[in-house]
Amino acid sequence: xxxxxxxxxxxxxxxxxxxxxxxxxxxxxxxxxxxxxxxxxxxxxxxxxxxxxxxxxxxxxxxxxxxxxxxxxxxxxxxxxxxxxxxxxxxxxxxxxxxxxxxxxxxxxxxxxxxxxxxxxxxxxxxxxxxxxxxxxxxxxxxxxxxxxxxxxxxxxxxxxxxxxxxxxxxxxxxxxxxxxxxxxxxxxxxxxxxxxxxxxxxxxxxxxxxxxxxxxxxxxxxxxxxxxxxxxx
Length: 234
Fold this sequence. Notes:
Elements: H1 2-13, H2 16-21, E1 24-25, H3 43-68, H4 76-107, E2 118-121, H5 126-149, H6 156-185, H7 203-226
Parallel strand pairs: 1-2
Helix pairs in contact: 1-6, 1-7, 3-5, 4-5, 4-7, 5-6
């Protein structure tokens, strides 16, 4: 259940992160004034995964192995816990960046101009993508190892199905959350957290909410991981 929150966070990296990026200055140099598409920002997740995997194998694991004296460096559940912690940090960074974007929009009088470009570099959004990419390395690989190695041999296909379903169910739960919050926050003529005009919306509130949920998921997973007894590999 704790890992489903990770799936909800994943849904933001392909939806609201992109919507954030569509409102800021996406030109990458003073000579090339054509803005890059906001959706291309998702490539930073893949790039961070490609860069961090060798770092994990060549640097992190040997250091962890020297401390824990375990062949893998850290246990599977410890890896998942680190990933969920990093995804929580990604939501915190996303909330802070969104707060800055809203402040910039107010400072330049763009609150009522939804199609105007907020004079803020798209580079501000890169850290939240990178953090999520690194979190993905820890969490998804850890989940794959856990569901493959800790279930009976005859149930491994079911275990892998559960691993793959986390992202799908997370997207579904994210849609439910957005619908409920949209209905609740738009009552009495108030501006919804997810208004089409992002300069009036409050994505930052939503990110803080997900950061809180991720923190609860992290704490609960750490608590249960301490008492988990691993099955011997067969």
